[in-house]
Amino acid sequence: MANPKKKVLENIEGEFFVDSTCINCDTCRQLAPALFEDAGETSFVQAQPQTPEEFRAALQSLIACPTGSIGTLHKNSSSEIMDDFPILIEDDVFYCGFNSPKSFGGNSYFVKHPKGNWLIDSPKYLPQLVRQFEAMGGVKYIFLTHQDDVAEAAKYAAKFGSQRIIHEEDRAAQPDAEILLKGQALYEMAPGFILFPTPGHTKGHCVLLYKDRFLFTGDHLWWRRKRKQLGASQGVAWYSWRKQTESMERLLRFNFEWVLPGHGQRMKLPPPEMRSELAALVNRMKASLETRWGY
Ligand code: SF4
Description:
Blueprint: E1 16-18, H1 27-31, E2 36-38, E3 43-45, H2 52-64, E4 70-72, H3 78-82, E5 87-90, E6 93-95, E7 109-111, E8 118-120, H4 127-135, E9 141-143, H5 153-160, E10 163-167, E11 179-181, E12 187-190, E13 193-197, E14 206-210, E15 214-218, E16 222-224, E17 229-231, H6 241-250, E18 258-261, E19 267-268, H7 271-289
Parallel strand pairs: 8-9, 9-10, 10-11, 15-18
Antiparallel strand pairs: 1-4, 2-3, 5-6, 6-7, 7-8, 12-13, 13-14, 14-15, 16-17, 18-19
Helix pairs in contact: 6-7
Bound molecules: iron/sulfur cluster.
């Protein structure tokens, strides 16, 4: 629970605040960008919520915060807000919330599908979310984009009898995973679900393309809110920036309209615009390979 005595100085006065335990994961800024801003080392409240929608977004941020760093003096029923999660994004794709500190506050997603539901990366393991997943038909597959965002996948797998999928190069993070992806081949695990390796951030990083519309990108690719463009980071290319650039270029073979990242802003664009954004990013990444300092 956030401590008002540890409020960061940048908070604007009012009912909501961020305290100094914030790990600056960006989750609150994704959920309520008008209310939360980046102070460099932490987030802070830049505007207090005024409308019912803004209060809800602030409370959703409070619940999604991996470290419990958002506090409020607002009299509210946070248990009621908890039932908002997982939050529908579009069609049958949901954002789970309850981001885990074990994945540095990484986002996770849920796909409700008649032939078995999918969890993409893992949220915290909490009864509220387990109940919701149960009500939606359980979890058949847990796709782990890479080794950093496994969080509590093992607990969800034990609860639901799920099959965990991870690339063999990242299997140290989930050694008893039921399905190991190998090499650089594409896998169609179920109709409409295509998995493919995108080495770069880690050696075994993979992404999932669902229905040729939703690309779950882990830490490979995200939307940069302020620059209004697709982005990737050389600073977190733990395995190889050159390999990540090659992986990014391979994505140009596919059409999709949603980028749903582990970290960073999600974004929907018409497929031609998304493709053009992706091509521009690939060009910037290639150019960075020619310089000392990179992109
Ligand atoms: S969600 Fe929590 S930890 Fe993440 S940036 Fe916001 S206040 Fe900080």
